[in-house]
Specification:
The complex is a heterodimer of chains A (about 500) and B (about 500). Chain A has about 500 residues and is mainly α. In chain A, about 70% of the residues lie in helices and about 5% in strands. Chain B has about 500 residues and is mainly α. Classes of the chains: A mainly alpha (about 500), B mainly alpha (about 500).
């Protein structure tokens, strides 16, 4: 069975099916979305079972597509792809169960979610630049409509900003792809061959320009400061599920690209640029945490901590590319970076869900207008506490093992950058504790006395994330065994 | 065997003649169709004038089918004493003119049906199509001058078809004056070329210009380019575009934005390749600069438009700029000509899809202001989908055909060492997103029902022929999707579309 192809095709077929459903509101769109995602999940499980962690790129599926361009339908997985594909399916299940608002899911919503899901999966599985770029851009269109149709008050502005910024990012990637394809021996879009061949080697002007083109695109997507300004706007205006997918999956497109293309296909150029990239990562990590500290809007706060956490990942990737690093250090840095992508995906998605639930129940996301929520909402408070602690990197929860490995690797290459970045963790710890105090402790204002705690559906959406946060914290090998970068990196 | 030789020779000669006729069949079809259309328009009673439309539509489609037949069956060759080239670019353009012209006939029906010169409209449209095909096939200076003149005359009549409208009169007069002046300058430039070479054959002009004084070559070439830039709506000869599109019947705007433009671009490519071989006087760079200016000015001007037709007019200027990228790379990259032809086909499908929706909206709402598109997604999901696919394809979002086209164009530019031009095109793509979304967003996101010009008594009249317009929109939008997702057949086709030298 072509499991990888099915993983992409099933959600896509689901999306294609939605316009044919009956027009009156009902459960059909939700069931189609859930069914297609569950089937994609089955395909991922099948892939996971067949996957051999000791091997690199594997289970490659090929079919002819556009031979005159050197384009083919090429899919494959390595540890990083597999982990991210699994994350994608889990988060889409959560987002679909949570829905896009109180009304039953509409056909358009189900269709767009499935289209976004199919394109994210295609991006992580693609081993052909043509498909890779299509997936990169289709995620953008689908997310644009999700924000523009179901977003908050200033949704049009936020959606346009999102579309523009990421299009500005994706077009340099296109130029980079063209340059790489032109430079290759046979003009192929095959990413596996391009990684072997490394047509743009060295650190000359051409190689540097191509590197910068790719880097700029992925940096906007990640986002790395100073290309981050679209992120808070998009998160604040997006519906809760949109934020979950944006933070959980879409940001990973950037760091995945940095590893897959910049690190694997132009290691020499990356070596040359390793320090500046690490410094950008450091700036993101510190700037993100400091700005988050000043936020009073819960969603904005979480959005800025995302910039902080993605900054760590960038530092890890840059460390792996640096000159002085040992093999062990490189492995640690990349294992940590990939695990951090997964952990951040799970934890931050949880945080956005929780922020959405708090806003729904209390009518505000403003920390200044919240207080003493532990009393009316004990269960929600407990979950929020766990997720906050996870996000600040408490041992035993998902982000700790990731950050530990990542920093071990980073210290090997850039001790000073690593040391400064760790101070970001201190700031994040402070800001999460402060937020917890403000919202959940102290006196409960009158209007917040009678609030309904988590409903069954809300518990169902949070449970998988909570479970994964704890399991990955205690037993990170669950993911690390698959990720195991030593077998696929370089 | 005494007499056998001569008989054989006679047979061969006859054979060649017949074959030449077969090679010219697509052009001949349009010529005959135009003349018959004139006759039909003159003699058919008013009530049956509609038959002319059918006749002309079928003739266009036949022309496209014959072009495909010539391509598959006979290959490329230079014919009519080497004045007409039956090769990749000309046959591809003939196909586009055949199918695009037929679609424009369908699009024109709601506006033209029942008017007092219905038959003549279609006859003139066929003459315009014929001129497009000849222009794109000509390898002879005199033939090019004739084709440009005939095309200008035919499209001038089409532009001014709504005789009652002041705007239409202004538009067509502007268009005509601009067209005649630029055509005259071009003819004057061609006469210099003739003076240098002593012949009108572009190929021999190329030989002569290679050894001519640089000043004369530069001056004459500049004059020749004026006429072709005008047809392609390239900066700085683009001013007529928005007024002409706005004043003309919408179907004519659709026609002008696609067929004469593409014919002009193909002719430009041919003239540069044949008459100025080996990048004589460095035209590559000149065209590259014109391309950059055209796309940039077109996109910037489009930003401020509130009228969908004027917006699309400036968008079509910008799209000319993108296509000029391929022309600029012609001499330096093998990828350039396939890129030009692929993008031409992609652009034709895309722009016709968008215009079809604009026409449907205009029929229903009586307006082409951007606000008239609000709520289109609720009222007509299919039209909104077609509009969305078309506009996103004009931006170049994958997997639509516009994306594959831009991929080809960028590849050609980078391969031709004109990466700077590709970077400018990228910046332009981002700018263009703004205004394409300005048109698309209200259509998809707004649910309000605008009441502009809603008039139920007039509805049946307005609805006339609208179903065919919708079908054309759906067909063109499907092509936008299919040419992108399943690009292989079209790409391998254009890879073989070589130009005869």
């Amino acid at each position: 069975m072509p499991w990888l192809t099915l993983t992409i095709v099933l959600p896509f077929l689901g999306a294609a099916l939605t316009p044919l459903l009956p027009a009156r509101p009902g459960r059909a769109p939700l069931l189609v979305a859930l069914g297609a995602t569950a089937l994609a999940g089955v395909c991922v499980i099948a892939t996971w079972i067949r996957f051999d962690p000791a091997d690199g790129m594997q289970l490659v599926e090929q079919a002819t597509w556009i031979p005159s361009l050197g384009v083919a339908w090429r899919l494959g997985v390595d540890g990083m792809s597999l982990a991210l594909v699994a994350l994608t399916v889990v988060l889409f299940l959560v987002a679909i169960i949570h829905g896009l608002g109180p009304a039953p899911m509409s056909r358009a919503a189900a269709g767009l979610l499935l289209l976004l899901e199919a394109s994210c999966l295609a991006y992580f599985l693609a081993e052909d630049f043509f498909l890779f770029y299509i997936a990169f851009d289709v995620t953008l269109v689908a997310m644009y409509f999700l924000i523009a149709l179901w977003g908050g008050e200033r949704r049009r502005y936020a959606a346009l900003k999102f579309f523009l910024y990421t299009l500005i990012g994706s077009l340099p990637v296109l130029l980079g792809i063209i340059a790489m394809v032109l430079a290759s021996d046979h003009g192929t879009f095959d990413m596996i061959r391009l990684a072997d061949e490394q047509p743009i080697a060295g650190t000359g002007l051409g190689a540097s320009l191509a590197f910068v083109a790719f880097f700029a695109g992925f940096a906007i997507k990640t986002p790395i400061v100073p290309f981050h300004t679209w992120l808070p706007a998009a998160h604040v205006e997006a519906p809760t599920s949109g934020s979950v997918l944006l933070a959980g999956v879409l940001l990973k497109l950037g760091t995945y690209g940095l590893i897959r293309v910049n690190l694997q296909m132009m290691p020499e150029a990356f070596q040359h640029f390793a320090l500046p990239v690490a410094l950008l990562g450091l700036v993101s990590a510190l700037y993100g945490s400091l700005v988050a500290l000043a936020q009073t809007d819960l969603k904005r706060l979480v959005a800025y901590t995302s910039i902080n956490h993605m900054g760590y990942i960038v530092i890890g990737i840059a460390a792996a590319a640096a000159t002085g690093i040992s093999d062990r250090g490189r492995e640690l840095a990349i294992d940590g970076a990939v695990l951090q992508m997964i952990a951040h995906g799970i934890v931050t998605s949880g945080l956005f869900l929780l922020a959405g639930m708090i806003a729904e129940k209390t009518g505000t996301r403003d920390l200044r207008r919240l207080g003493g929520l532990f009393r009316p909402l004990p269960v929600l408070g407990a979950v929020v506490s766990i997720m906050f602690f996870a996000s600040l990197g408490l041992p035993g929860l998902a982000q700790f093992p990731a950050e530990l490995q990542l920093f071990l690797g980073a210290f090997d290459a850039f001790p000073v950058v690593g040391a400064l970045a760790v101070s970001g963790i201190v700031i994040t710890a402070g800001l999460f504790l402060l937020a917890l105090q403000r919202a959940f402790m102290g006196r409960t204002p009158e209007r917040l006395h009678d609030l309904a705690d988590l409903t069954r559906r809300e518990r169902a959406t949070l449970a998988p994330l909570l479970l994964l946060t704890v399991v990955l914290g205690i037993y990170p090998r669950l993911a690390l065994d698959a990720i195991h970068s030593a077998s696929w990196l370089l | 065997m005494g007499n056998g030789g001569t008989l054989q020779q006679a047979k061969t000669a006859e054979d060649t003649m017949l074959r030449e006729l077969a090679w010219l069949a697509p052009i001949g079809t349009l010529a005959v169709a135009a003349i018959v259309a004139v006759a039909l328009a003159t003699f058919l009673p008013r009530a049956h004038q509609r038959a002319v439309a059918t006749w002309v539509t079928v003739a266009h489609l036949t022309c496209a089918a014959l072009a495909a037949g010539v391509w598959l069956d006979r290959g490329f060759r230079s014919t009519m004493s080497a004045t007409v080239q039956v090769d990749g670019p000309s046959l591809a353009l003939t196909g586009v003119v055949g199918i695009g012209g037929a679609i424009c006939c369908i699009l024109a029906a709601p506006a033209v049906r029942g008017t007092d010169r219905e038959g003549e409209f279609y006859a003139v449209l066929t003459f315009a199509s014929l001129s497009c095909v000849v222009l794109a096939s000509a390898a002879d200076a005199a033939l090019i001058a004739i084709a440009i003149g005939a095309l200008g005359l035919a499209t001038f009549i089409l532009t001014g078809y709504l005789r009652g409208s002041k705007r239409a009169n202004e538009a067509s007069i502007k268009y005509y004056i601009f067209g005649t002046v630029s055509g005259a300058i071009m003819a004057y430039g061609l006469s210099w070329w003739f003076g240098q070479a002593g012949t009108t054959s572009l190929r021999e002009i190329g030989v002569a210009l290679s050894s001519a004084p640089a000043g004369i070559v530069v001056a004459s070439t500049a004059m020749v380019l004026v006429g072709l830039f005008y047809k392609a709506a390239a900066v700085p000869f683009h001013f007529w575009t928005p007024d002409a599109y706005d004043g003309a019947p919408l179907a004519v705007a659709a026609y002008l934005s696609v067929l004469p433009k593409l014919a002009g671009l193909i002719a430009l490519a041919r003239v540069l390749t044949l008459a100025l071989p080996a990048d004589l006087i460095g035209w590559s760079t000149v065209i590259a600069i014109v391309a950059a200016a055209t796309m940039t000015l077109g996109n910037l001007a489009a930003l401020r438009q509130d009228n969908a037709v004027r917006l699309l007019a400036y968008s079509s200027i910008a799209q000319s700029g993108y296509m000029l990228m391929a022309v600029a790379a012609l001499d330096r990259s093998e990828q350039a000509l396939p890129a030009l032809i692929y993008y031409a086909i992609a652009y034709a499908a895309t722009n016709l899809a968008v215009f079809a929706v604009v026409i449907a909206v205009q029929r229903e709402q009586g307006s082409v202001a951007i606000s008239a598109f609000a709520g289109l997604g609720r009222r007509h999901p299919r039209q909104a989908t077609a509009l969305g696919l078309g506009l996103l394809s004009l931006v170049g979002i994958p997997p639509l055909t516009g994306f594959v086209g831009k991929l080809e164009l960028f590849t050609a530019s980078i391969d031709a060492d004109q990466t700077w031009l590709a970077v400018i095109a990228v910046v332009n793509t981002v700018i263009s997103l703004f205004y394409y979304l300005r048109l698309l967003t209200p259509a998809i996101l707004e649910s309000s029902e605008p009441t502009v010009g809603r008039d139920d008594t007039d509805r049946s009249g307005r609805r006339h022929g609208i179903r065919a317009v919708n079908r054309a929109a759906t067909a063109a939008a499907s092509a936008v999707l299919v040419f992108g997702l399943a690009a292989e057949p079209l790409l391998s086709l254009v890879d073989h579309a070589t130009m005869l030298r």
